[in-house]
Amino acid sequence: MWTRDTLHALLSERLQEFRLIAVCNREPYIHRHTPEGIRFAEPASGVVRALDPVMQATGGTWIAHGSGTADRETADEGGRLRVPPGKERYLLRRLWLSKEEEEGYYYGFSNETLWPLCHIAHQRPAFEEAHWNRYAAVNARFADAVVEEAGGDRALVFIQDYHFALLSKLVKERMPRAVVCQFWHIPWPNPEAFRICPWKSELLEGLLGNDLLSFHIQHHCNNFLETVDRELECRIDRENFEVMARGNHTLIRPHPISVDFEAIDREAGTPETSRRMEDLRRRWGLDGLRVALGVDRLDYTKGIPERLRAVDRFLYRHPEFVGRFVLLQVGVPSRTHIRAYRQLQDEVESLVERVNWNHRTATWEPVVFVPEQKDRSELLAYYRLADVCLVTSLHDGMNLVAKEFVASRCDRAGVLILSRFTGAAREFAQAILVNPYAVDATADAIHAALTMPAEEQASRMDRLRETVREQNVYKWVGKLLLQAARLEPTWVESPTR
Ligand code: GDG
Question: Which residue is closest in CA terms to ligand 1's atom 1?
Fold first, then answer.
C-alpha cells in the first residue's frame, strides 16, 4: 500500500541524485489582498490538489505562474517562498506573466485551443496565430526558470499538463542530462480530431522531448501513438509503447491519477465534519429531503446542463419525489474571461430557474445552485450528506470529484452516478455508469440510485473505496516518478531542431 511515508522513503532513496522540479501553470497557494489583510487560498484545481500532497512528501521546487494580487509581497525578489504557509515543506518559484502573456498563453492557446481540441465536447477550438506565439514564448520563459532552478544539478523535471506542450523539448536542448517527464491531465483525442490543429507537428515534436509522457488511461496513450504515427516521421514500438523520433525515445504510459484517500477518509469522519453537515442541512433546509450533489468547476466539459435536464426529467417521471428531493450544485466559476464559459454560466443559471419553475411548490424548489468556491473541509461535508453524487462529464481525463466522494464515505453509504466518458469510469465498475447525453437514462439512474437498498449501497461503496485506497495519489506519482528515474535520458541534436 502506498502512503505519504512510503512515497517519501522511496523517493528520497531512489531520487537522491536528482533535484525534483515540478512545473505547473497553477500555483498551490495564492496570496491575495482581502479586507482582513493578506490571505492565502488553495485553488479548486484537480491538478493542484493532486500534486501538492506529493510535493509535501518529496520536497523540491514547484514553478508556477504567480497569479495572486499579493503574490509579489509574499515572495522574495526571485519570486521564491517556502510552502505550505506555516509548514514550509517545499519551494514555490513564482513566475510573473504580463497581461498579454496570460491572455495568449493561458486563456488563448491553452484554454480556447488545446482544451476544446482534446475534449470531445462539441466546442469548436480557436486557432489564433497570436495566441500560439505567446504560448511558445511563455513555454520558453518556463524553460529559463527550470534551468535556473536546476542550478547545474542533475534534475528530474515533472511537467504538468497541456499548458506546456513545448517545454520538454526546450528543457532538453539546454539540459540534455535531465530526465523529463510530463503528465497530460486531459484526454488525448483521436488523430482525426487532432489533425485540424495548424501547429500539430510542433506540438507533437515538443511533447516528444519527454523521456516519459503519461496519460490517465491506456486509451489516451493509444490515441497519442496513433496521432504521432499519422503526423510525424518516427518509429513506434507498439509492444513497449515507445516512440523513437530523431534518435530520441519517449515512453508513453498510463498512470491513473487519484486522491489522498487516508487524509480524506480521516477528515470526513471527524465530529467537525458532522457539525458542518448539520450547518449545511439547516442552511439549505435539507430535512426530509433526499440529496443529489454536483461539484464542478463551471466548465462545458462537465455536463452540468445535461445533469439539470436529467433532474427535470426525473421529477416529471417520478412525481412522488416532488418536495422530497433536491439537487445541490456547487459550481465554482472558472475561466470567466472566455466567452464560452460566460455563456455556460448563463445557460446553467437559466436552466436552474427553468427546472425550479417547472416543479416548485409553495415551500420547496428542486435545485439549489451554489456558484462559489468552498473550502476543502466544507466540501467534505457536502460529500458526506449526499445520497447521490452526480458526475456527468461529456469528456473528462479522470475526474477527481468522483474519487473524493468515494474516499469521504466512511459511512459506506451513498451512490455514485458516473459518466462513462470519464477516466474514472475505467476503475469504477460499481458506480452507476451513464451516458450523460442520454437524458432519460440518466433520469432513470437517479431513480435507481435513490431507491437502492442500503446493503447494496454499502457493498458497492466498499469496492469503490478499496479501489481508491489502493490506487491512491501516492501510488500515481510514485510509480510515475520511479518509472521516469529508471530511464536513461536520450537527447540527440538534429539539424532540423
Ligand atoms: C483536470 C482534468 C483530472 C471543485 N469545486 C471546489 C473544489 N473543487 C475541486 C474538486 C477537485 C477539483 O476541484 C476538480 O477536479 P476534477 O478532476 O474534477 O476536474 P479538473 O479541474 O477539470 O481537472 C480532470 C484532473 O485534472 C486531475 O488530473 O481528473 O479530468 O480535467 O479536487 O474537489 N475545491 C474546493 N472548493 C470548491 O468549491 N476547495
Answer: 46
Q: Choose which residue among 26, 30, 45 to substitute to test ligand 1 binding: the one with the highest number of ligand atoms within 8 A of its C-beta.
A: 45
- Find all residues with CB under 8 Å of 245, minimum gap 6, and list them: 205, 208, 228, 232, 233, 234, 235
Ligand 1 atom at minimal distance to the Cα of residue 372 = 38
CA distance 421 to 428: 12
Q: Is there an atom of ligand 1 within 6 Å of 332 CB?
A: yes
**Of 160, 297, 389, best ligand 1 pocket probe by most atoms within 8 Å of the beta carbon:** 297
Calculate how far, in angstroms, residue 219's C-alpha sits from the geometric centre of ligand 1.
21
487 alpha-carbon distance from chain centroid? 26
Question: 73, 31 in Cβ contact below 8 A?
Answer: yes
Distance CA(384)–CA(312), nearest Å, equals 24
pLDDT in the model for residue 72: 98
pLDDT 10s digits, 44-102:
776 787 788 778 888 899 999 999 999 999 999 999 999 999 999 999 999 999 999 99
Using CB atoms within 10 A of its CB, is residue 77 exposed (0-12), middle (13-18) or buried (19+)? exposed
Report d(CA 306, CA 444) in Å as an integer: 14
Q: Tens of pLDDT along 347-391?
A: 999 999 999 999 999 999 999 999 998 989 999 999 999 999 999
Any atom of ligand 1 within 6 Å of the Cβ of 404: yes
Q: Is 365 exposed, middle or buried (0-12, 13-18, 19+ CB in 10 A)?
A: middle
Distance, CA of 472 to CA of 3 (rounded, Å): 8
> Cell triple for residue 95?
513566475
Atom of ligand 1 nearest to the CA of 187: 30
Report yes or no: 457 and 413 within 8 Å, Cβ to Cβ. Answer: yes
Whole-prediction pTM = 0.96
Q: 342 CA to middle of ligand 1, Å? A: 19
Half-sphere exposure of 207 (CA within 13 A, CB side): 27
CB 92 within 8 A of CB 82: yes
Residue carrying the nine cell digits 433532474? 311
Domains annotated for the chain, with CATH where assigned, are: 4-257+475-485 (3.40.50.2000), 263-471 (3.40.50.2000)
Ligand 1 in reach of 118 Cβ (< 6 A): no
For residue 396, the CA-to-ligand 1 centroid distance in Å is 11
